[in-house]
Amino acid sequence: MSRLHLHPESHLVDRIGWLRAAVLGANDGIVSTSSLIVGVAAAATTQNEVFIVGIAGLVAGAMSMAAGEYVSVSSQSDTERADLARERKELSENIGLEHGELTDIYVKRGVDRELARRVAEQLMAKDALATHARDELGISEFTTARPMQAALTSAATFAVGAAMPLVMVVISPANMLAPIVSAASLGFLALLGAIGARAGGANVFRATVRVTFWGASAMGLTAAIGTIVGRAV
Q1: Residue 3 pLDDT greater than 70, yes or no
Q2: Model pTM?
Q3: Angle 20-78-75 (CA atoms, 0-180°, nearest 5)?
């Protein structure tokens, strides 16, 4: 047996289910909490009040992320189940037509028609529904929706991301709270962008610049609003 068959391959797409939720959760945790802290600090409140607001933002944000991810991914899961149920019905009612559809799919991908017909026949003989789910509907074990995994991952990573600017509130001097939190949060975002890009096989520099730019924009806007509101009241 060749060494190729003894070496299981690990593909980056295997991580797509949890990586998207993890990066989104951590990024949102850093951006929303640091923006909230900077905005409130700009309104000239005390350091303790800023910390309490940050804690409230962490808890509310984590719960919101969990609920939002669960609802949205559940909708995707419901759609996948509906498509599979319809495909199962079509296979039971007209398997010949489904065989023809699968053959046409392989032909469009560049396979000779006779070979495509035989491949479709053999794959359907093994597991017709799984074959059509993968090649006709684009549903696979790697991309299938997992609502609970997405919800828990997003909530946990949001909390971790939100905790970073909160730590800076505790250790920063009161008169330097906003600039220190802003600078540290941008550093955290840059690191997160690099780690996420590395894990997903994307361009590290582009991902780092992208996440840092939008984080800086969010913090700048909330700081400006906080300053205006603080002066008004």
Answers
A1: no
A2: 0.68
A3: 50
